[in-house]
Protein 1
Amino acid sequence: MTSTESLAASQDGLLKTILTSAKPLSDPALEVYRRNIEANAVRALQISFPTLEQLVGKRQFASFASAYLHSRLPDSGDWGQWGEHFPAFVAGQKQLTAYPYLADCGKLDWLRHLCERARDQETDIESLTLLSEVDPYALKLELKSCVACLSSDFPVLDIFLAHQESQETAEKHRHAAKEKLAERQGQALLVYRPQWRSQLRSLTVAERTWLQELMSGTSVGGALDQVADLEFDFSTWLPQAMQEGLLYKFTRLDTP
């Protein structure tokens, strides 16, 4: 073990000791340090999971955030990288079993958070020429790293919008969410970033299948085969996807 690794392990050990103590620490400086860490953790999760906080309430959210910190310490100094498993942690609380949609609502918050943190990528316009030069089964379409899909058994988009928009519009989405929850209607949606803020929209079965195939590395031809029996028009989708900032580049499958 190098000296740097040894120091990091020592710091991790100290942090674990400080956070796992159930009683106030005897050293006032360490007690202040612990409270600062807990406050930073709560604030970080508030930033990453704004909808989840609204759903469970500020006080309960802060309690869950503190408990989560004690169970899963951050593995880097960047608080923005910490919290991926928080939605499942919250959904696993016994007092919240009547709200099974919380985990997916939290996942949506996390995907939006990652989307806005993703590096900027300019669409490679020149790569579009490969569409006419390369067999579609030897062609791969890469989406930007900010693009993500979420399929849920719950109306997560309506729930999200009910907590984000004006009172009149929010009420419309709350009503829609209640109806879909009663009818057990789920939603599939796209997370993307045309500029600097993440955006959301619903996905059809065809487009969801298409995007999932592309994300798994399937060739353009292979992905089109998967939506052949669905209502999907590549020639219509392509310009819309470019406008929304979904496309990164086309590459040959044999290109590293």
Protein 2
Amino acid sequence: MDTSVLQVSDLTKQIKHTQIIKGVSFDIKQGEILGFLGPNGSGKTTTLRMIVGLSKPTSGDVTICGYSLKKDFVKAMSNVGCIIEGPDLYDYMSGYKNLEMLGSMSKGVTKEDIDDAVTLVGMENRIHDKVSVYSMGMKQRIGLAQALIHKPKLLILDEPTNGLDPQGIHEFREIVKNLAREKGISVLISSHLISEVQLMCDRVSIINNGTIIRNASINDVLSTGEVIWTLDDPVKAQSILKTRFNIESSIEAHDLKAIVDVEKLSDINKTLVKSGFELTYVENKKQTLEELFLMLTKKHKI
């Protein structure tokens, strides 16, 4: 059974004679957090705008909880809560009054729904204070509560930690992770803070020049890194890596170095041992998401 809450299928966007989004596809399962990354001008914002119905795709479709955005826009969007370009709040009103006003515009939102959202974002003690005295972090929490009051299945957060201090970023991250883990809410989060995406997300989609260039779990993208072997005959071992595994490598100070898929590492090590090499040390150096992002976007640069 397909448990995808969000399914983005072959989205394209053409403006005049220029195609700026070129067949973008990804999905998000229930309770999963997906990081959506891309450099400026990559097509990230345009894609997000199409997902929330602010821009019409040239072709392709977006399906939310089984409802096509093209065919059942209202039903599809009824399952979505989002913060795009920061929360829109009235400073002269309390946080609670802001939520009540928004709730009155949404069908079926009750006082209990508002109270639940306030509890989920940890604002019980300050919810009746005026927004004008809130810190940036508290305003972001109220914005998140706004997105939660109608109990969405999917949260879409565009740069939600902009302007937050390290403590505020940490608190916001833990709230989002708890929403996914405890409430089963799926989250699509766009952020320029790549280290935060690495800490918060289960999977990542990286877009550049209007094309998805990597779509994988965080564990998978971090596990494909540099491996270093310290062994007795690096020149002969280098030849084996090339002929048997088609892997290019280099030799530095008698160490053999190569970029290797972690799933192949065990077979490579077994082959080296069976071939009579004395392995003194093997290190799998995991890369950071930032390193991968910079490498991929540089590789796919126009």
Protein 3
Amino acid sequence: MELQELWRVIRKRLKMIILITVVAVATSGILSKFVLPKQYAGTATLIVIPHNSTQSLLTSMVTGQQLVDTYAQLVDSRAVVGGVIQSLGLNVTVTHLTKMITATPLTNTDLLTVTVKAPSPSFAARVANEVALKTVAEVTLVQGQKNLEVVNPAINSPIPVGPKTKINVAIALVLGLMVSAGLAFLLEYLDDSVRSEEDVKRVFDLPLLTVIPSIGDESTVKGAKDRPKRATRSKARGQRTVRSNGRYEGRL
């Protein structure tokens, strides 16, 4: 399909494309702003403490980074998450709480962040701090020494981190344009009717000889039929007037 053909289809279905896109954007904005529940985040920061002082600086950095990556995998382990549920007395499953926890190693550092997203800022901070403490306890239990420590506990943050209205609206805009454009081309592909001069030239590739104008409504048709009768009666009355005038002048 050539560019001119693409533009013709888009121009023909432009109102539909705009309508669908506007509806998608408006729906996404309303859902993100008023319907979807707000999400708050609590973030605790941990640091890896290397204890072997005989290692070189480069070896210590590499080892520390490897430990950070390893400990990040322990944050959402069943042992840590199950211990958090038991300590806080939460009425949730391990799978549900694991989906709320995110462990992120900070690049080129010995730091590890533990983030918990929840509908309540206090709940998110409390769970994040407990996950951090349970991770430290689990690492100490496994390695026999305290290689991990909490350096920045999570605090209550009143600023929600989700839903992200601008991102959702942007996604809805792109999807709305894609879906509406695809629907426009589908309708054009299924539409084999001929309604205009352009359709005749495009479908049959023949020169157009003449165009039959469309007839108006029934009143217009009746008016067109009655015009010759009214004209005939008017002409007849004119002739009778002339004759009567002639006879009248003749008598004088």
Protein 4
Amino acid sequence: MDDTVTLALGGGAVPLREFAMALDRMNRALQQLASDAGARIDWVVAGLDYSSAIATIVGRPLDQASEALVAKVVDGFGAAGEAVAYGRPATASPKTIELLRQITAVLGEGIDEVRFETATREAVVRAGEQPAGELVASEPSRDRGTVVGRVQTLQGRGRLRFTLYDLANDRAVSCWLSTGQEELMRGAWGRLVEVAGVVWRDATTNVPLSVRQVTDLNVLSEPAPEAWLSARGAVRAPGSPAAEQVIRQLRDAW
């Protein structure tokens, strides 16, 4: 059962005041979605990642009738996030949509990105994408591929999910596992890994946002302390000749 939602605020230094404000509006939006669905759900914090201010929240039904409604509410949250970010038709109540829009109002100094996530949906809004109060964001691309990075956090409560910090961009990437894939994570915490699956990427920058439908995870060997020395000469120093010029000079010298 999909019972997990995620709110991520990206930025170099996310202010506590804005993070607390966003979480309060997130809680109110989830409560509104549950109320509209006729469900009684207790929302529990399953994980907090400090670097990018990521909150993972799990829905716990309070009665038997609500058990079948948790997944519906979670999917409704993801759909509402997409409506806010990409201008899709909204199926959620106007109050829910307004609360999610209020979350994006924290964009600014210290926060350059707001992400609403579920195991199947991804909605991203960035600073500067709100002309005249309307969000004009490009939807993420998705294709099978791999992401290399270091596993920083792992949540086993609710839907199994871990946060990978992309080696190339040092950005948090949410990786969603399926039931029965717990063994993939054995010994992976804090390690450098390569994750294969459907990679969702920012349509503009091509930076990975998340990996879903994970098919494999390989723990990589840690590089030697002086491995960086092998990259000497990879970048041309200012004013130095291009590689093809050097090759031509060596050829002519023969």
